[in-house]
Design brief:
binds pyridoxal-5'-phosphate, Aspartate Aminotransferase, domain 1, 14 helices, two-stranded antiparallel ribbon, about 40% helix, Aspartate Aminotransferase, domain 2
């Protein structure tokens, strides 16, 4: 029996072992570990790759989201309590960033087929309190950004992208990170672009917002020992920046491999009890951070796959508004699509280091799943 892990991080990073050793050795030998040449160079390289005008390296994806809101509040673009539209089926970090900044999440159900927000869905929830929209490119698929940008422009709303799962997804040659007023990326090790620890970044259009976020992440200071804002310590460190610089040049090839596996899954899995994700018309719209199918018999499918050595996971079994942390404030909210998806979604293994043979094996295991 084969053993197919959900994600083999060692195998992912083994491909660059020599380069990572060289990069981390360079940092060790430099004697300079915080806010130095590696972070500067990474920010430039990531800006060139995404096409975004400004990049600020940060400690993780959650703080990248959070500091965008903190900066907008500092600039007077948002007021405490303002509503922020967020999909009901996202990872909880999207919501934690909103509530952590003293803002109010306004949950909206996603489209069932894409798992993402649509402009029509957002429009129905606009009220005078809503001042911003968070477009989460869930599972690596970019939201319909042309329509969402138009809607935000028409209504004077700020637009933030949660691009933690969608490094490199694009519409008409414009990548995530370039559509909204600002975007947050995570480089958590398991993301499409992963550091060897926690790391994140903000991309944004406006140099003043970038400057403010940079300062907020460095104790609210831009000049040593002078503190203009009540900031925090949320900096990207030199070690992680050096590792990310090694991995960035391979991102396009990795995403291409993920697309190939997703295309095979979609073409070859044909099972009456499994609903496949919709392949986007233009392949570049998705970078397949996760390959998520739906089934009414999720536990049985997971058990069947596990019995064949194929490890599947659920992203995510409990939607944020039903988490204990939000029970009191949002437990009463009804989000039928998010709630049903939470009961039916299953993520099959997908990663750039999965071999054709492993893909064959996972597909074969799925095909012989029969429900008694
Ligand atoms: C991973 C993730 C985050 C948070 O990123 P971290 O680096 O883990 O803090 C935010 N939003 C989404 C959708 C994510 O998947």
């Amino acid at each position: 029996m084969h053993k197919i892990p959900f994600l083999d991080l060692k195998k992912i990073n083994d491909r660059y072992r020599d380069e990572l050793v060289e990069a981390t050795t360079r940092v060790i030998d430099s004697g300079w570990y915080i806010l130095g040449k590696e972070v500067d160079a990474f920010e430039e390289e990531f800006a060139a790759w995404t096409g975004a005008p400004h990049v600020v390296g940060l400690s993780n994806g959650l703080m990248a989201l959070r500091l965008i809101f903190d900066a907008w509040i500092e600039q007077g673009k948002l007021q405490p309590g303002d509503g922020v539209i967020v999909p009901g089926n996202t990872f909880i970090a999207s919501v934690l960033a909103i509530t952590g900044a003293g803002l109010t999440p306004v949950f909206v159900d996603p489209d069932e087929n894409t798992h993402n927000l649509t402009a029509e869905g957002i429009e129905k929830h606009l009220t005078s309190n809503v001042q911003a929209v968070m477009a989460v490119h869930l599972y690596g698929r970019i939201c319909p950004m042309e329509q969402i940008v138009a809607l935000c422009d028409k209504n004077g709303l700020l637009l933030i992208e949660d691009s933690a799962q969608a490094h490199g997804a694009e519409i008409k040659g414009i990548k995530t990170g370039c559509w909204g007023d600002a975007a947050a990326f995570s480089f958590y090790p398991g993301k499409n672009m992963g550091a060897l620890g926690d790391a994140g970044a903000v991309t944004c259009k406006d140099s003043e917002t970038a400057r403010l976020i940079r300062s907020l992440a460095n104790y609210g200071s831009s000049k040593k020992y002078e503190h203009v804002y009540r900031g925090g310590n949320d900096r990207l460190d030199e070690m992680q920046a050096a590792c990310l610089r090694v991995k960035l040049p391979y991102m396009d090839a990795d995403n291409k491999r993920r697309r190939k596996i997703a295309a095979r899954y979609c073409a070859e899995i044909n099972h009456p009890d499994i609903q496949l994700p919709q392949l986007p018309e233009n392949g570049k719209e998705a970078v397949w951070h996760l390959f998520v199918v739906r089934t009414k018999m999720r536990d049985k499918l997971i058990e069947h796959m596990a019995s064949h050595g194929v490890h599947c996971l659920v992203h995510y079994p409990i939607p944020p508004h039903h988490q204990q942390a939000y029970q009191q404030d949002f437990g009463h909210v009804s989000l039928p699509v998010s709630e049903q998806l939470a009961e039916e979604v299953v993520s099959l293994p997908i990663s750039p280091v999965m071999t054709e043979e492993e893909v064959n094996y996972a597909i074969a295991a799925l095909k012989n799943w029969s429900i008694q």
